[in-house]
Write a structure and sequence with these properties.
CATH superfamily: Spore Coat Polysaccharide Biosynthesis Protein SpsA, Chain A
CATH class: Alpha Beta
Structural class: alpha/beta
Largest sheet: 7 strands, mixed
């Protein structure tokens, strides 16, 4: 029997994006058990969007005060509310094609971190979607070859330790595997590396990576680059994690390529 899926969505003050994302979730062929909004301090507009979709989706909003970029903590608070066996993480600017949850569940395995892919929408495409905010436009946006569903079999397991293949805008694992490493490191404040830290700690716990390319891709809405003023400090913390104990030589070589 397939596990039950919970979706965790990070967001901050972007209700038009979140509206499109939630619309795409409402169109899923297999509905999630939960949709948890990990809100990093948004104003009331975000809560109003969530209330609108509460009639269609099993949705919960988890809000924390705005004290800077604290995605790690917002995800951890959401994890405390998880009831699904399988947790899918996406960002609040990533729309899901109709078979997204269904395909995630098809390739899900215990002790596997599922690395999804993304298609980057242009500024013009994103503006048009935001202007229309309708179901047909959302469905038509999934035309890229990246949304083809192709059985890849053992090819999905070709890079079991390459943490660079994983992004928190589209990744998933069994909830029990996430809980055993205590979720995300909340010492990462500001944009960058909290996701890499999470992946490396999962790998060290015995989890391996399985690719969801040509199975579960998201449409990433265009936006200006996030403030990266904390990236250097976060990278130093991540580098410390990589060097803190005996490493597989592959990790050391990957670090040099950052």
């Amino acid at each position: 029997m397939n596990p039950r899926a919970s979706i965790v969505i990070t967001t901050y003050n972007n209700p038009s994006n979140l509206n499109l994302v939630l619309r795409s979730i409402s169109l899923q062929t297999v509905k999630p058990t939960q949709v948890l909004i990990a809100d990093d301090g948004s104003d009331t507009q975000t809560r109003n969007i969530v209330k609108r979709f509460a009639r269609e989706l099993p949705i919960i909003i988890i809000w924390q005060p705005n004290r800077g970029f604290r995605a790690a903590r917002s995800r951890n608070i959401a994890l405390l509310k998880i009831t699904g066996d399988y947790t899918i993480f996406i960002d609040g600017d990533c729309m899901l094609p109709p078979h997204f949850v269904e395909m995630h569940l098809k390739i899900a395995e215990p002790q596997k971190l599922i690395a999804g892919s993304r298609a980057l929408l242009s500024e013009g495409e994103t503006s048009e979607l935001k202007a229309k905010q309708d179901q047909n436009s959302v469905i038509r946006s999934f035309q890229s070859i990246k949304f083809w569903r192709i059985p890849l079999g053992p090819i999905r397991n070709l890079f079991p330790k390459d943490w660079r293949t994983v992004r928190t805008c589209n990744m998933a694992a069994h909830t029990a595997d996430i809980i055993q490493i205590a979720g995300f490191d909340e010492n990462y404040i500001g944009w960058g590396r909290e996701d890499s830290d999470f992946v490396v700690r999962l790998l060290r716990s015995g989890i391996t990576i399985k690719s969801a390319r040509f199975a579960a891709c998201v449409n990433h809405l265009y936006h200006a680059e996030s403030d990266r003023s904390r990236l250097s400090a976060n990278h130093l913390r991540f580098e410390s994690l990589l060097n803190r104990s005996t490493l597989n030589p592959k990790f050391k070589s990957l670090l040099k390529e950052l």
